[in-house]
Design brief:
247 residues; alpha/beta; 12 helices
Length: 247
């Protein structure tokens, strides 16, 4: 009786050991990505000493991404031709792509949707300027003043990519969208959802890889909100990481 019980116990234990060997540990079964969401300033890079084009290049070099996700259209990525205000693409990002051969995804909508969204929001701004010229002038003055004030306080890339900066930019966007009209909010949300979706696609396609998204400062906070709501991706906390590596 005891011998039979002992045999059954040994067989049970051997079976459990075989099963355990057949199932890989979680770290091997699903390698986790490191995901970075970093702001760019477009033409403002040239007027912010703490986050000029050289500083942006140091951030990219510091992250050492395996994959880039960029706020350009697929055609812009393919042709290396962008809206003139995106100086960082001409001077830093496209040369980096060409030098490294790194894989890149375009996170802005393709040309048909791009034209639809920009045309719609452009008309909304035109109507606002005609309807409320004083408000339009005041809004532009406010935006310039806030970014000038931020530039005097930013001393590093970490400051630009901080939660404090995100909150200020979000408040500024709330004022702008409230003044100009509901369509601006709708289009901007759709735009930033597209950014987040393309980032999720890049991460899924490259498990275990280090993925860097470079996105305009006025979109970053909404992209982070989208990722948090979806729950599948937990980006590296940019401010803390940048401070830790001295950027």
């Amino acid at each position: 009786m005891n011998k039979m019980h002992g045999d059954r116990s040994r067989r049970f234990m051997l079976g459990m050991l075989a099963l355990a060997a057949a199932v890989p540990p979680p770290a091997l079964a699903a390698a986790r990505n490191e995901v970075f969401v970093i702001s760019t300033l477009y033409a403002r890079h040239k007027h912010v000493p703490a986050y000029d084009l050289a500083a942006l290049r140091r951030v990219i070099d510091g992250v050492k991404p395996d994959v880039l996700v960029l706020d350009v259209t697929p055609t812009e990525l393919r042709t290396r031709k962008v809206w003139p205000g995106k100086v960082e693409y001409i001077d830093v990002i496209f040369p980096y792509l060409d030098a490294t051969g790194i894989l890149a995804y375009a996170s802005e909508p393709d040309e048909a949707l791009f034209k639809q969204l920009t045309g719609s929001v452009g008309q909304t701004y035109k109507d606002f300027n005609e309807r409320n010229p004083a408000g339009a002038k005041a809004l532009e003055t406010l935006k310039q003043s806030i970014y000038q004030a931020l530039a005097t306080q930013w001393t590093s890339a970490a400051d630009v990519n901080s939660e404090k900066t995100d909150r200020l930019v979000a408040a500024l966007r709330e004022i702008e969208e409230g003044l100009v009209g509901e369509n601006v909010t709708r289009v901007q949300q759709q735009w930033d959802e597209h950014h987040a979706q393309r980032l999720r696609e890049a991460v899924r396609a490259h498990p275990g890889k280090r993925v860097l998204m470079l996105v305009g400062i006025e979109s970053r906070y909404r992209v982070l909100q989208q990722l948090k709501a979806a729950g599948a991706i937990e980006p590296v906390e940019s401010e803390a990481w940048l401070r830790r590596v001295g950027l």
